Amino acid sequence: MIIYNSLEEFNSIKHNLPKLSFVPTMGNLHEGHASLIDIAKKTGNEVVSTIYVNSLQFNDKNDFINYPKTLDMDIELLDKKGCNHLILPDSSILDNIKSIKAPIKSMKLCGAHRPGHFDGVLTILNRLFEIINPHSVVFGKKDYQQFLLVKDFIDEKKLNINIIGANTIRNNNGLALSSRNILLTEKDKLIASTLYKTLKDVEKNKAYLNSEYLKTKLDYLKSSGFKVDYLMSCDTESLEESYNINNNDLLIAVAAHLGSVRLIDNLVISKL
Ligand code: PAF
């Protein structure tokens, strides 16, 4: 794996490279990221990844400061998975960066609780796409709203990029793998797996889905120790609240804090 210590360094050699599949990350890599690299490898392209903790997408300064950093282990994992190129952008990535304003969809779900978050995500990705010029990009669907907004952004800007959404990887108890899990105790991890159990429960009872039913699930999460940002049933494209499971698949999405750790998860349930 070739490591580039800035975007400029990569930019100066990129004309020699074949088609690329891109896996953007903020580091602290786990099996979920490893699966994204596997998917990128399957495209047959050379794989490029980035590790950059993007200050623009953190609305909480402490969250940014405490974001786990494990660079040596990350490099080892990427190398082992067969990633071909790793870019470690330095702070010059932000020089004269063009700010992107995320569309209205970004105000729903996580965006309602993290003002400016998706503006920051799209701003940094736009810069990375410009420099890397990937043929394909791979995003985990644990961050469903991010996946959707990037897909829309690529469509709207008519970028020649194929976006691939990857299924969420979970531990044995169903807890979605996340860089933030490192901040949870073993006991917390067990409690955190209640999020996925709740989503599966909603799926099992989808014939009875309505706002009152979801409220009972939200209350249950609260009584289990979570501070819940949202538990919502929505249209998979517009992210508008919806319970119309007769005609459409629905996205059931949750975000909740366990102590100081914010966790998200979701499940797309198929129409009846
Ligand atoms: O999902 C992430 O890790 C980040 O939001 C991303 C896509 C790397 C942009 O900073």
Question: How would you describe the overall organization of this protein?
Answer:
This protein has 10 helices and 9 strands. Helices cover 36% and strands 20% of the residues. Helix 6 crosses helix 7. The strands form 2 sheets. The chain has a 6-stranded parallel β-sheet with strand order 1-4-3-2-5-6, with helices on both faces. The chain has a 3-stranded antiparallel β-sheet with strand order 7-8-9. By secondary structure, the chain is α/β, with parallel strands linked by helices. Bound molecules: pantoate. Pantoate is lined by residues 24-26, 54, 57, 121, 124-125, 143, 146.
Query: How would you state the average pLDDT, rounded?
Result: 97
Order of helices and strands: EHEHEHHEHHEHEHHHEEE
Structural class: alpha/beta
Which hetero ligands occur in this complex?
pantoate
Tell me the total number of β-strands: 9
**Strand arrangement, major sheet:** 1-4-3-2-5-6
Question: N-to-C terminal Cα separation, in Å?
Answer: 47 Å
- What is the percentage of strand-forming residues? 15-25%
